[in-house]
Specification:
By secondary structure, the chain is an alpha+beta fold. Helix content is 18%, strand content 27%. It has 13 helices and 24 strands. The strands form 5 sheets. A 10-stranded mixed β-sheet has the order 1-2-4-3-5-6-9-10-13-14, with helices on both faces. Strands 15, 16, 18, 21, 23 and 24 form a 6-stranded antiparallel β-sheet that branches. A hairpin with a 2-residue loop joins strand 11 and strand 12. The longest helix has 18 residues. The radius of gyration is 24 Å and the shape is globular. The N and C termini lie far apart (52 Å).
Length: 622
């Protein structure tokens, strides 16, 4: 589809030179050089180097580098982007800015693979991964880039965030600071899947990731595989496509789609792409960055931060979580909104100036010790709408509170005395939509749903709703969330989706910057967090199991962390459902060995039951 090809190309450019405004500053103040850097196995990677024009033997600059699969365009020694580096501020402060096409992409040589598996014990020059490519690139730069001060930093958002996170494993002594931003850590739990559930909303993006190029190129070689839909309604298009087994008519030759189809469980193929198991001693200073409303990679920064804390407690390791969608901290929008929620003004600028630039300047230009004056965790409270700082995350002094799913629709903080349950009929042929905004159902990322009003879902009969009474005092949830469901189904398989929601009071006024004037914040049901857990993986991601019809079973659903204050006069709500389409692919509800190969006959209605000893465990901050 031509429009999608243009959209993806725009996304590619945005991820590489994040939402820059038009300016001649880079061309006026930087000199550009294009080179090929040879890796240890002989593969050459295309690299663009931008050096401040006033650099000299007396005025040296550190290197700030981004490695990307999304193109280092514009190509040509006389072609400049509108902005260089992580921010306009850092561009004007002066860095040697380096961009590199990773192997197998665009103008670089080699073969492309998604989430390159890490090789911990490299035995020859043929054993290469993103860590070794980062090492070889850094080594070349400090030896060959004129007027560098011997210090290198790396940053990247989304897939470039993965390359930054993998680059930490290079352990090159010159790599002093690393900031993985919205990084992917494991495709099974983040980005293309959530706990193994396929994000069908990504269906139209597979050409970008599943087509090998034949030669070095500056053109989008994958565009011919883009799907021609003749519609803007992704919900209806994907519903009409039917079972995922019908996708071969589009992606028979798409290697990434075929890998996905042929690895329905968390087997060695996916496990090899898990970054978390490879962190040991960490040399560079690390600053993870994420957005509380990141629809792509919310798990990545949290998981990597916690893993490094565990594996190397002595490492300089910090995290920043702001009120942003995917990568939105990299551009200033003035009024900071996500969906219909307004958080304040110039929040991205605050982050860029007071957090990001401070981090890189300290380690690349300053003392380089651990005394940065930055906290361990710089977290934005999305309920109070203000930044908070913490000496550790999760917070050790948080108290655990259980919110029980009462059969009467209540959400009590103590277990009901009498056993009871509530049920709903789930029909995969009429799945619950994940959003009311149909314009987001065919793009690269469905940004807005992460904080969208959930009234449209809660008023359906196939969505269970539980809520507290009106809060007499504010309640701050800060940390991890785990839903412990006790369920049963008349089928043999089912997905379980849990949503934590902030219900506004009836007299809540609209703010001045409402993007949609038809939305009212009166009784608004703002989604704070949600997650899906395929029931087939309730006991093991490697070995799926069917449900025994009508037999009670336990399903734990881990929601990602939050920092959110539910204000006095609000309510806390939990919704439970089994479909959220086309965000997630539909579960047939009949257990099959491989859901990607299910037939139309496998899709059945089922009655799902939730028992009132189910609860959501949250961490409460005083």
């Amino acid at each position: 589809m031509k429009k999608l090809a243009c959209f993806i190309l725009a996304f590619v450019m945005a991820n590489t030179f994040v939402f820059a405004q038009q300016s001649d500053y880079a061309k006026e103040h930087y000199t550009k050089k294009e080179v090929y850097i040879t890796m240890r196995d002989g593969v050459k990677l295309f690299t663009s180097i931008y050096t401040p024009k006033d650099a000299s033997a007396q005025k040296k600059y550190p290197v700030i580098m981004q490695r990307t699969c999304y193109s280092v365009a514009p190509y040509g020694a006389d072609k400049y982007p509108a902005r260089l580096g992580p921010s306009e501020l850092m561009m004007k402060e002066g860095y040697i800015v380096v961009y590199q096409d990773v192997r197998g992409r665009w103008k670089s040589e080699g073969n492309w693979t998604n989430m390159t598996p890490v090789i911990d014990n490299k035995k020859s020059k043929k054993d290469v991964d993103e860590g070794s490519d980062t090492y070889d690139t850094v080594d070349w730069l400090v030896k060959n880039a004129p007027y560098n001060n011997g210090r290198v930093g790396q940053w990247g958002i989304s897939y470039p965030g993965f390359y930054t996170a993998a680059g930490i494993l290079a352990n090159h002594p010159a790599l002093k600071a690393s900031s993985p931003q919205a990084p992917i850590s494991d495709f099974w739990f983040d980005d293309f899947h959530h706990n193994g559930a396929l994000l069908e909303s990504y269906f139209f993006t597979y050409p970008v990731f599943g087509v090998q190029k034949k030669d070095t190129t500056s053109k989008a070689w994958y565009a011919d595989q883009n799907i021609k839909t003749n519609t803007r309604d992704g919900y209806q298009f994907l519903l009409d496509m039917g079972p995922l087994s019908n996708a071969d008519k589009y992606y028979k030759d798409n290697f990434y789609w075929q890998e996905t189809v042929n690895h329905p469980n968390y087997d060695e193929f996916w496990q090899k792409r898990d970054l978390l198991r490879h962190y040991k001693k960490v040399l560079p200073a690390v600053m993870l960055v994420g957005g509380w409303y990141d629809a792509e990679d919310l798990r990545g920064p949290l998981a990597i931060f916690k893993t490094i804390n565990q594996k190397d407690p002595s490492a300089y390791n910090t995290i920043v979580m702001g009120p942003f969608g995917h990568g939105r901290w990299s551009r200033e929008t003035g009024h900071t909104l996500h969906s219909n929620v307004y958080f304040g003004d110039s929040i991205a600028t605050f982050y860029q100036k007071n957090i990001e630039a401070k981090f890189f300047n300290h380690f690349l230009k300053g003392k380089g010790d651990k005394n940065t004056d930055l906290p361990k965790a710089y977290m934005y409270n999305t309920g109070k709408k203000e930044w908070e700082t913490f000496s550790q995350w999760p917070v050790a002094t948080a108290s655990h509170q259980k919110l029980f799913l009462g059969a009467d629709g209540k959400l009590p903080m103590s277990q009901p005395t009498a056993a009871a349950s509530t049920s709903f009929i789930s029909d995969p042929l009429k799945p619950v939509p994940y959003t009311e905004d149909n314009t987001t159902t065919m793009g690269f990322t469905p940004h807005n749903y992460m904080s969208e009003d959930q009234r449209f879902a809660g008023r359906r009969p196939d969505v269970l709703v539980f809520q507290t009474d009106v809060l007499q005092n504010e309640v701050t949830l800060g940390g991890e969330i785990m839903a412990h469901l006790k369920v049963a189904t008349t089928g043999t398989d089912a997905d379980w989706i849990v949503k934590l929601i902030d219900v506004y009071p009836p007299d809540e006024p609209n703010h001045a910057y409402m993007p949609n004037k038809n939305i009212i914040l009166s009784n608004y049901q703002q989604m704070v967090r949600s997650e899906i857990m395929p029931g087939r993986f309730r006991n093991s991601f490697e070995k799926p199991e069917a449900f025994v019809p009508n037999q009670k079973a336990s399903v734990d659903v881990k929601l990602q962390d939050v920092l959110h204050t539910f204000k006095k006069g609000h309510r806390i709500m939990v919704q439970v459902q089994s479909t959220a389409f086309p965000l997630f692919a539909r579960n047939p509800q009949k257990f099959v060995p491989n859901p990607y190969k299910a037939t139309e006959a496998d899709y059945i209605k089922a009655t799902h039951t939730v028992f009132n000893d189910s609860y959501v465990d949250v961490e409460v901050l005083k």
